[in-house]
Design a protein that fits this description.
By secondary structure, the protein is of the alpha+beta class. It has helices spanning 2-8, 68-89, 97-116, 190-193, 203-211, 218-233, and strands spanning 20-22, 31-38, 45-53, 56-63, 124-130, 135-141, 146-149, 154-157, 175-178, 184-188, 196-197, 200-201, 243-249.
Length: 251
């Protein structure tokens, strides 16, 4: 339970000036993954990493509606479901990753509604990185689009379904994309996109500009996104949770 609370940001001392916090860094084959966020977490951002087989790695970024003090039970339930269902659904050597990802979304949706005692909007981006193939099977349940960079361009990974927690029978779809030898993937929270300065938003374009700068480690990429947001706002953001989850492949 202690690790769950720490991952959710409970028990973390909030500084007067929010600072960039780096989450745990998982060990991957031929790639690396990282997450960074500002220490003043008051909203419903939730991230997790989980190895589910010798060559599959599950990750997710969720945004449960409401302040952290009221959404805490829902966050805990979602994290527990993500881990337990992920281990169960993706453990087999041979499986249909798309079907497993859709089933994971279905279970998360029902668990969020159960824990909330009704409707509780939760945009979510979840993916399974296949280390052997260099692919990501993902669902985007009404979340900020993921951004996939290769040598030539950046592609948006838009919503494949509605946010979780709204309807008991909410259809969603799963898609598979490939990461090139030096490709990278960035998934950012709404707090990144909606960061404002002089009536302008940082937006997805701000994240794309960082990705276009070229290959870098996942840790450096996540930190660069948050630093650019802070520079754009000319202050540490306090408007919402601000999280950047990244995956990069090594050549």
């Amino acid at each position: 339970m202690k690790s769950f609370l720490s991952k959710l940001g409970f028990g973390v001392t909030v500084e007067e000036v929010p600072e960039i916090v780096h989450g745990e860094t998982p060990a991957l084959q031929g790639a690396d993954m990282a997450v960074a966020y500002f220490s003043s977490r008051a909203g419903g951002d939730l991230h997790d990493f989980l190895r589910v087989s010798p060559h599959r790695f599950l990750f997710g970024l969720l945004d449960v509606a409401g302040k952290r003090e009221t959404s805490g039970p829902v966050l805990l339930a979602a994290l527990s479901c993500f881990r337990a269902s992920g281990e169960q659904l993706f453990a087999a050597t041979e499986l249909n990753e798309s079907e497993a990802m859709i089933e994971l979304s279905r279970r998360l949706n029902l668990e969020i509604m159960r824990a909330a005692g009704g409707v509780r909007s939760c945009p979510a981006f979840a993916g399974c990185y296949n280390e052997e193939l260099g692919t990501v099977c993902y669902v985007n349940a009404g979340h900020t689009p993921g951004l996939l960079r290769d040598e030539a361009s950046i592609v948006e990974l838009p919503a494949t379904g509605l946010p979780l927690g709204l309807f008991s029978l909410a259809p969603t779809d799963a898609r598979i994309v490939g990461l090139g030898p030096t490709g990278s993937l960035a998934v950012v929270s709404r707090g990144v996109v909606e960061a404002e300065s002089k009536n302008a938003e940082f937006g997805l374009e701000g994240v794309k500009n960082i990705l276009l700068a070229g290959p870098t480690s996942a840790r450096e990429l996540s930190q660069s996104i948050l630093q650019r947001v802070q520079e754009f706002m000319r202050m540490a953001p306090k408007h919402n949770d601000v999280t950047a989850l990244t995956l990069t492949r090594a050549a």
